[in-house]
Amino acid sequence: MSQRTIGVTEVALRDAHQSLMATRMALEDMVGACADIDAAGYWSVECWGGATYDSCIRFLNEDPWARLRTFRELLPNSRLQMLLRGQNLLGYRHYQDEVVQRFVDKSAENGMDVFRVFDALNDPRNMEIAMKAVKATGKHAQGTICYTISPLHTVEGYVKLAGQLLDMGAESLALKDMAALLQPQPAYDIIRGIKETYGEDTQVNVHCHATTGVTLVTLMKAIEAGADVVDTAISSMSLGPGHNPTESLVAMLEGTPYTTELDPDRLIRIRDHFAAIRPKYAAFESATLVDTDIFSSQIPGGMLSNMESQLKAQGAGDRTKEVMAEVPLVKADAGHPPLVTPSSQIVGTQAVFNVLMGRYKVLTGEFADLMLGYYGECIGERNPEVVEIARAQAKKDPITVRPADLLEPEWDKLSADAAALAGFDGSDEDVLTYAMFPGVAPGFFENRADGPKNVGKTADELAASAQAKSDSATAVTGPIKYKVSMGGREHSVTVERA
After folding, report:
1. Is 248 left (phi over 0), alpha (psi -120 to 50) or beta?
2. Cα separations (Å) of 348 from 79, 148, 475?
3. Distance (Å, whole) CA 173 – CA 153
4. Residue 409 phi/psi, 5° resolution?
5. Among 116, 234, 251, 425, which residue's CB has the most CB atoms within a 10 Å radius?
6. What letter does residue 409 receive in the DSSP assignment?
7. Which residues contact residue 495 at a Cβ distance below 8 angstroms, ignoring those fewer than 6 apart?
8. Is residue 49 classed as helix, strand or coil in its secondary structure?
9. R_g of the chain computed on alpha carbons
């Protein structure tokens, strides 16, 4: 039986630990697996971008550019892959075109090969400059379709978006399912539609999370439809809000017309490496294993927990169901954007405001901007009444142009501001770090010389910490004194030790 080889993108070095343990994994806990990852036969290794850049400087005192250069050195035979938020780069606002171009240039120069470029609203205009910049470097530009479900999202619509990305020069397409909403049949239909419309040689990569429990089957149907590459995570870093296990994919394809050609011995070593590492990060682990409510609510788990914390902070923890019912209404009023960073946070927070204060009595600044077009265009028409409320509150008019067209050149000012900071090293990479996170970068520059810190705890450290607490409790001699309040009066109580 002749077999078609399915490429595999391993996400253990980026999205797996981002999804499972809040992006806290230290570089030193990854390097030991790199030789085996490099030799296992993956199509690509996702190791940078997404939230890792933010987490490096915010929590780990680590230079993200140094992390990229380290991966380049340790994975010489692999395509390195990153996730890039189009015109937002790795920050949370739109950047002027020159900043986007410089970021892509520096990423390529430091070792990046495959750029998966997406936009939270699926607005191709917000991906175009980044895609062109990638093409100009000679690297692989992957245009991304963020998958969501709504009355307006159709197979035909996704196939049309694929064509727009191909027209932009996309070398491959990614069907990105960040909420585990992609069921097997829609996956098959979309990929067949792309292949039949644009040719069987159009490369399609499929990215699914595992949260709803159906997406390993989705990957099988995607492969049957012609998918060329699928994303997985080594089993010891998989499932829950993460991804499907690499070894399970390999086993699933046995006896079929498809093979991954991955080296099973290398996979075992990669698995064992991360199985030993993962317990260190237990404090950051998500509690979610399977959540099928996402199919009805369309609310990803991270978004739900964010809304619940907002409600509890307002003493309204009992109103979660009202907010969950409000989210689809707000999403519809905004033109049905996919719920992914930052649109999920914007829609979710506005739903909380609507429930607590009355519908659209108060708009967040971000939601007003979303309604006025400052994040880009959505698939659906925005509710004109809410647009008028946004116009009145924000005191600015709706726009139909690409949002970044309104930005003034900013590179020179960013460079000057970064240069004034203690610890700035004079590089374009440092200017870009400041541009992404101007509130965090100054502290990072100042403390960078202290070196990276590991926020995980080894078994010995956990045991030592528990022992220290025990020792301090038993080391105290003599009577224990307490202060007790009774009937509004405070009393001192002394208890002799046995």
Report:
1. alpha
2. 36, 16, 50
3. 18
4. -50, 135
5. 234
6. P
7. 479, 480, 481, 482
8. strand
9. 25
Nearest C-alpha neighbor of 448 from the set 143, 129, 60: 60
Alpha-helical runs (H) found in 85-154: 97-109, 128-137
179 vs 298: CA distance, rounded Å: 8
SS (H, E, C) 476-497: CCCCEEEEEEECCEEEEEEECC
483 has a pLDDT exceeding 60 = no
* CA 409 to chain CA mean position, Å: 28
By DSSP bridging, strand 44-49 and strand 480-486 are unpaired
Q: What is the mean pLDDT of the chain?
A: 92
Q: Which of 279, 267, 261 is nearest to 235 (CA)?
A: 267
pLDDT band with cut points at 50, 70 and 90 for residue 210: very high
pLDDT band at residue 469 using 50, 70 and 90 as cut-offs: low
Whether the model clears a pTM of 0.85, i.e. scores above it, the answer is yes
Q: What is the DSSP letter of 280?
A: G
How many whole angstroms separate alpha carbon 289 and alpha carbon 363? 34
Burial of 245 (0-12, 13-18, 19+ CB in 10 A): buried
Tokens found for residue 218: 């989705």
Angle between helices 97-109 and 411-419 (to 10 degrees): 60
Residues 6+ apart with CB under 8 A from 70: 27, 31
The span from the CA of 131 to the CA of 255, in Å, is: 39
Is the pLDDT score of 482 beyond 50?
no
Enumerate the β-bridge partners of residue 142. Answer: 116, 172
In the block, residue with structure tokens 């659906």: 380
Tell me which DSSP letter residue 376 carries.
-
How far is Cα 257 from Cα 220, in angstroms, rounded to an integer?
11
Give CA–CA dist 266/360, Å, rounded: 55
The label of the residue with tokens 């932009």 reads 168
Residue 339: pLDDT above 90?
no
User: CA 174 to CA 230: how far, in whole Å?
Assistant: 9
Instruction: State how far the alpha carbon of 259 is from the alpha carbons of 53, 225, 256, 263, in Å.
Output: 34, 15, 8, 11
Phi and psi, residue 49, nearest 5°: 85, -160
DSSP per position, 291-359 = -TTHHHH---HHHHHHHHHHHHHTT-GGGHHHHHHHHHHHHHHTT-----TTHHHHHHHHHHHHHHH-T
